[in-house]
Amino acid sequence: RKEVEQDPGPFNVPEGATVAFNCTYSNSASQSFFWYRQDCRKEPKLLMSVYSSGNEDGRFTAQLNRASQYISLLIRDSKLSDSATYLCVVMVRNSGAGSYQLTFGKGTKLSVIP
Amino acid sequence: AAGVIQSPRHLIKEKRETATLKCYPIPRHDTVYWYQQGPGQDPQFLISFYEKMQSDKGSIPDRFSAQQFSDYHSELNMSSLELGDSALYFCASSLAQGLAEAFFGQGTRLTVV
After folding, report:
1. Cβ atoms within 10 Å, residue A88
2. Which residue of A has its CA nearest to B89?
3. Which residue from A28, A83, B33, B49 could staple onto B92, CB 3.0 to 4.6 Å apart?
4. B52 closest CA partner among B64, B67, B66
5. CA-nearest residue of chain A to B31?
6. CB-nearest partner of B48 from A45, A87, A101
């Protein structure tokens, strides 16, 4: 089982729609949580960090439920420019080595259509 | 603002050749990560460095090695290249590993022919 699981998508939504992505992680030692977006053949770009209290940045809202090991991303009023792959990323502490590792989900592809 | 710089952006090599990819992290970032992303795949962790010491190792083949230098830049050395090594290679950097977001460079697209 993959450490970070995401809805596979693709999600095809009309402009203006609200869309939600879900992500679950298996390692309870996970420390930090992020959503990145990746455009085709480009580098992942940080969209937002995810906190237990939930956080909002404009049309984007992220939620974290540590008890359920579940992360979500809500996009309101979708724009054409939101079309991308959204990657759920978890920072896990390697207790043996005392180091950290970013682990990616496979990503969910979003296409916003006119 | 300065970002993570990777070079070269594109590289074409023949099978069994060697390649060196370079990464210059954001100034004052002390952690560097290397990732490999094949077509249609999510990024796979290769190796990371914290304060110039290797901190973690992922699915990095024995043919690959990496190091972080005194100026914090990092190099990924790849030998005996195989066709399957063709991929996008991303470097990311962060401050105070595990506690802050990681920022990615634009990647090096390696094509092995």
Report:
1. 29
2. A43
3. B33
4. B67
5. A100
6. A101
